[in-house]
Write a structure and sequence with these properties.
The protein is α/β, with parallel strands linked by helices and 340 residues long. It folds into two domains: 3-180, 3-Layer(aba) Sandwich (Peroxisomal Thiolase, Chain A, domain 1), CATH 3.40.47; 187-336, Peroxisomal Thiolase, Chain A, domain 1 (3-Layer(aba) Sandwich), CATH 3.40.47.10. The chain is 32% helix and 22% strand. The strands form four sheets. It has a five-stranded mixed beta sheet with strand order 1-7-6-4-5, sandwiched between helices. A hairpin with a 3-residue loop joins β12 and β13. α3 crosses α4 and α8 (229-250) packs parallel to α9. The chain is globular, with a radius of gyration of 19 Å. The two termini are 23 Å apart. The structure holds acetyl coenzyme *A.
C-alpha cells in the first residue's frame, strides 16, 4: 500500500480509540409490520434488504441510548468520564428541540462541564461529528472526544405510511477519539458536503418556525418524516459515489487498497450500486441493515461496532466510511483502523 498521506500539516493525527453500541431490546420484524400497514416480508426484503429493526420503549429516550453506547465506548477505551473533554451528539431525533441532547448525555455520564453540543446533519451527522471533533483535537486544546450517533426514529415515523415506516430503526453508537500514538495512524481525511436545494425530498415539515405545532399540523400528520423515496435513492447514489471517488483521489488511494467500506445503512440496493460504481466488491462492504434497518446518524458507528465484535476489523485496515442524509448532506471519511 502506498504511504498514507496525513490530512493536515499537524504533526499528529487522531484515531477512533474505541466504539460502543446500544441496541434497544425490542425487535420489529417485517411480519410484525404487516399488522400495521399493507406490506409483505418479500416486498421489504427485495426492495431494501431489511428484515427487522429495533424499536425503543416509550420511556427510552435518544439520550438514554446515547449514554449507554458511550459507557461501553469509554469502558473499551479504558478511560473514565473525567478523561473526556469534548462531547458531540449527532441526531435528528433529539430528546426535545432544546437544550441539546448532548447536554442531557453529559449529565447522565457525569462528565465535567466540557463543551457539549448537537450536530444536525441527519444520516451524515456521525461523520460530520468525526470531522469537527478531529479538527478540535488537532488544535491541541482537547485530548479525548466522545462522538455519539443516537436516534429514536420510531418517534417521528408515520406508522400508517408504508413507504417510510418499514425503513428505519432505533439505536446508538459512540466513538472515543484521541490523539494517535503515531502520526500515520487513524483518520486520514474527510470530505463533507450539502445541497439545500433538495431539502424537501426528505424532511419533517412541522414543529419548527416554518410550521409551529397546531391542531391543523397534527391533523395533517405533518409532525412525521416525509420522503420522496425515488429522488432520495437517485441523489444518495450519486453524491455518495462522487464524494467517495473524490476522497480516494485526493489521498491517492486506489479502490483496491480499501479493506472495508462502511456505508450508511439505508438500503442494500443503494449500497450495491455504489459498490459497482466504485469497483469495490460487495464482500468488502460491512452491512447490518438486515437486522437494524436505517438508524440514521447511528448507523455507521453501530455497523463499526458490529464489525468489531464479529472480528472483521483489524488494526491497520484501511476503511472508507460513507454517508448521505436529509439536507441533503453527504460525507466520506478515510481512516486507518487502530483501536485500543
Ligand atoms: N410494501 C408494499 N408495497 C409498497 C411499500 C411497502 N412497504 N411501499 C411502497 N409500496 C408500493 C408503492 O405504493 C408502489 O405501488 P404502485 O406501483 O402501485 O404505486 C410500489 O410499491 C413501488 O413504490 P416505489 O416507491 O416506486 O418503490 P421503490 O422501488 O422506489 O422503493 C424505497 C421504495 C425502498 C423507499 C426506495 O425508493 C428507497 O430506498 N429510497 C431511498 C430511501 C432512503 O435511503 N432513505 C433514507 C435517507 S437517509 C436519512 O437522512 C433519513
Amino acid at each position: 500500500m502506498s504511504a498514507l498521506i496525513h490530512s493536515s500539516s499537524h504533526d499528529c493525527s487522531v484515531f477512533i480509540r474505541s466504539i460502543g453500541v446500544y441496541k434497544p431490546h425490542k425487535k420489529l420484524t417485517n411480519n410484525d409490520l404487516k399488522k400495521l400497514v399493507d406490506t409483505s416480508d418479500e416486498w421489504i426484503v427485495s426492495r431494501t434488504g431489511i428484515k427487522e429493526r429495533r424499536v425503543a420503549d416509550r420511556a427510552e429516550l435518544t439520550s438514554h441510548m446515547g449514554t449507554k453506547a458511550a459507557l461501553q465506548a469509554l469502558e473499551r477505551a479504558k478511560l473514565s468520564p473525567k478523561d473526556i473533554d469534548l462531547l458531540i451528539v449527532a441526531t435528528l431525533t433529539p430528546d426535545m428541540p432544546f437544550p441539546a441532547t448532548a447536554c442531557f448525555i453529559q449529565h447522565q455520564l457525569g462528565l465535567r462541564t466540557i463543551p457539549a453540543f448537537d450536530i444536525q446533519a441527519a444520516c451524515s451527522g456521525f461523520l460530520y461529528g468525526i470531522e469537527v471533533a478531529s479538527k478540535m483535537l488537532l488544535s491541541g486544546d482537547y485530548q479525548n472526544a466522545l462522538v455519539i450517533g443516537a436516534e429514536k426514529i420510531s418517534s417521528i415515523l408515520d406508522w400508517e405510511d408504508r413507504s417510510t415506516c418499514i425503513l428505519f430503526g432505533d439505536g446508538a453508537g459512540a466513538a472515543v477519539l484521541s490523539k494517535a500514538p503515531q502520526k500515520n495512524q487513524g483518520i486520514i481525511g474527510s470530505i463533507l458536503g450539502a445541497d439545500g436545494a433538495y431539502a424537501e425530498i426528505l424532511h419533517l415539515p412541522a414543529g419548527g418556525t416554518a410550521c409551529p405545532p397546531s391542531i391543523e399540523s397534527l391533523n395533517k400528520r405533518l409532525h412525521f418524516l416525509k420522503m420522496n423515496g425515488k429522488e432520495v435513492f437517485k441523489k444518495a447514489v450519486n453524491c455518495t459515489y462522487q464524494v467517495s471517488a473524490e476522497l480516494l483521489e485526493k489521498y491517492n488511494i486506489h479502490p483496491s487498497q480499501v479493506t472495508h467500506v462502511v456505508p450508511h445503512q439505508a438500503n442494500i440496493r443503494i449500497i450495491e450500486v455504489i459498490s459497482k460504481r466504485l469497483q469495490i466488491p460487495m464482500n468488502r462492504f460491512l452491512t447490518n441493515l438486515e437486522s437494524m434497518g436505517n438508524t440514521s446518524a447511528a448507523s455507521i458507528p453501530i455497523a463499526l461496532a458490529d464489525a468489531l465484535e464479529e472480528g472483521k476489523l483489524k488494526n491497520g485496515d484501511l476503511l472508507l466510511l460513507i454517508a448521505f442524509g436529509a439536507g441533503l448532506t453527504w460525507a466520506a471519511t478515510l481512516l486507518k483502523w487502530h483501536s485500543i
